[in-house]
Amino acid sequence: MAGNALFVSDREHEVLEAVAHLATSNPFLPDRIAVEQKALGTAFRGYALVWHMDGELRGINPNIEPLREVAERFAETLRERLANGARATAEQLRLYEGFVRYLFFYRYESEFAKLLDDGSRGKATTRPLVFFDRFSADIDHFFKIRGVRFPLVPDSGRLLAWGFQIRRAFHHIYWQVIGSSMPIANLRAALWRSIFTHDIERYRRSLYEKMGDVPTLILGESGTGKELAAQALGLARYIPFDASKKAFTADYASGYQPVNLSALSSSLIESELFGHRRGSFTGAVDDRAGWLEGCGSHGTIFLDEIGELEGAVQVKLLRVLQSRVFQRIGETQPRRFEGKIVAATNRDLEVEMGEGRFREDLFYRLCSDVIRMPTLREQIADSSEALRELTYILAIRAAGEDEAEALTRDTLAYIRSKISADYEWPGNVRELEQCVRSVLVQGSYSPPRRERDDPATEAAGIRDTLLRGEATADELLREYATRVYARVGSYEAAARVLQLDRRTVKAKIDSELLAELGSP
Fold first, then answer.
1. Could you state, in order of their start, the residue ranges of all structural domains in the chain?
2. Residue from 509, 516, 476 nearest 495 by CA
3. What is the largest CA-CA distance in the chain?
C-alpha cells in the first residue's frame, strides 16, 4: 500500500469505531445492540434487550463469535496497512488501539477463565503466567510499528491487568445478578459503573488505582442480594501485574472480606474491625490485627448491616473514611487503611439519621456511590416473565438442569393455586429460592405470617393480652421482645429499642411466636 493511501474506507471506519466503542462501553446497557449491529451489518443477529443469564441460551450473545472473527480478521488488515505507511489520523489510531484491546479480551478469554476458575476453587492466582510472553509478543506485533505513534498504549503488564479486571467484573456481575427485568439490567449497569466509573477511558488513564478511596453503599430490603452485589464489586478490583515476575501482585479471590455486623456485639465489632493491643480489655491476651489492617491496598471489606453500628464505632469508621487512618484498641500508633469499603443496610438511613441513630456525616462519606437493589416485586411488575425466569434459574441450582423445567412448572403451579398471583414476596429472591426448595422437598410452601408488617395487628395482640389480665410480667416481656426482634431483625437493634442488655433480649425470645411471625 502506498504511503499516501487512506487507512480505512467509510464502511471500515464504521466497523473500527463500533468495535472500539464496545471495548469501552458498559456491556449491560441496551445501547450495545445498536453498536453490535453497526459493527456486523447484515451478519447481526437479534437478541434480547437485556443481556442476562437465561435458562435456554445461558445468556450467550449470538453476536460475540461473529464480532470476534471480525476483530481477528480486520485487526491484521489494519496493522498491515499501518506497517505499509497508510495515513491514519490521531482519532483513527485511538480507535485502532481500542479495537485491538477488544480483540485481546476475547483472544485470551480462555486464559482469563482459567484464572477465574482457580480463584473460585481457592487456588492462588499469583503464580507466573506462561502465556504472558505470547501476550507481550502480541502487544509488540500490533503496536510497535515503525513510524507510528499511538496516543495511549499501556505496557503489556498493565494491559493484561486491565483485561483480567474486565473479565472478572463481567463474570461476577453476569453470573451473580440474575434476572431479565430492566430493574435488574440497571443494577448490573450500576455495578459496572461502580467498578469502572461512567467514563471507562478516564478510569483507564488515571483512576484504576484510586477507586479504593471511594466507598460504595448498597441499599435494599433483606433478600435482594446485597451481599452478591458487594462480592461482585470486591472481586473485580484492579490488581497490578508485575511483568518482571510474570505474575499478579495479589490474589484477587482472597482480597474480599465480608463482615456481618448484626451478628456481632458492639465491643466485638470494634475489636474485629480495628484490632486491639494485648491487655486493652478483659480477654485481650495477645496483640491482634483487625480486618482493616489485614485488608491490602487492592482488597475490599464488606460491612453488611452498617445500620447496626453504635455511635462510638460510627465515629471511628468515619475517621477511616476521612483520613484512611485508625488505631488498634488500646494503642495510639496510627495505622493506614489501604483498601476499599463496601457497606450495606436494609434500613432507611434517612429515618435513622432523623431519629439520631445514624450519623449524617458518616452517611455523606458513604453516599458518593450508592447502589439500590430492586425488590422482587419491582422485577415482577416490570416483566411478566421475571417470576418464571428467576424460578427456572433457582430450580437449576436446586435440582440440576435435568429436573429444572419440571420443578419450575411445579413451583409456578403451586404459587398460582395456593399463594396468589399478587403475593408481594416480602423475602424477595431469597424467599423465592426457599419456595422452590420447599416445593422440591415437601411439595408445598407456606409463606410466613406477616403480622409484624402491620403495627396495628401487633398492638392489638399485646393489648388483648393485657386486658385479659392473665399474663405474667415475664410473659408480656417475652411477647413484646419477640415482636420487636421480629421487626428490627437483630438482637443489638432490639436491645436498643427495649433498653435492655442484648443477652437479656436473646434469652426472652419466644421461638414459637417468632416462627409464627416469620423469623427475620
1. 10-178, 228-372, 376-442, 451-517
2. 509
3. 102
| pLDDT tens digits, one per residue of 260-301 | 888 888 778 888 898 887 877 767 768 888 889 989 899 999
The string of pLDDT tens digits covering residues 97-148 is 999 999 999 999 999 999 999 999 999 899 999 999 999 999 999 999 998 9
Assess contact for 49 and 33: CB atoms under 8 A: yes
Nearest to 119 by CA among 254, 320, 21, 273: 254
Could you report the per-residue pLDDT of 456-465, keeping only the tens digit for each? 555 555 666 6
Which residues, at least 6 apart from 134, have a Cβ–Cβ distance to it below 8 Å?
A: none
Instruction: Please tell me the distance from the alpha carbon of residue 277 to that of residue 47, in angstroms, as a whole number.
Output: 59
Enumerate the H helices of 197-336 as residue ranges: 200-202, 226-234, 266-274, 291-294, 311-323
CATH architecture of 228-372: 3-Layer(aba) Sandwich (3.40)
pLDDT at residue 265 in the model: 80
Cα dihedral sign, 88-94-96-97: positive
Q: Is 162 helix (H, G, I), strand (E, B) or coil?
A: helix
Which band of pLDDT confidence, cut at 50, 70 and 90, is reported for residue 57? very low
Q: Tell me the C-alpha distance between 265 and 272, whole Å.
A: 10
| Coil vs helix vs strand at 55 | coil
Burial status of residue 332 (CB atoms within 10 A of its CB: 0-12, 13-18, 19 or more)? exposed
Question: Amino acid letter at 12?
Answer: E
* CA gap 402, 209 in Å, rounded: 45
Q: Is a pLDDT exceeding 60 seen at residue 376? A: yes
How long, in residues, is the chain?
Answer: 520
State the Rg of the chain over Cα. Answer: 27
Q: How far apart are CA 173 and CA 189, in angstroms?
A: 9
Residue 273: half-sphere exposure toward Cβ, Cα within 13 Å: 28
CA distances from 466 to 129, 178, 482, 504, 514 (A): 72, 48, 16, 22, 20
